[in-house]
Amino acid sequence: MDLSNEKISIVISQGSLEGIYPGLIMANGARAEGMEANLFFTFFGLDAIHRKRQEHIKVATVGNPALHVPTWAGGLPGVSSAMTHVMEHKMEKLEIPSIPEFVELISDTGAGLYACKASVDLFGLDMDDFIEGVDDVITVGEFYEMAFGGHIVFT
Question: What's the pTM value of the predicted model, to 2 decimals?
Answer without folding.
Answer: 0.92
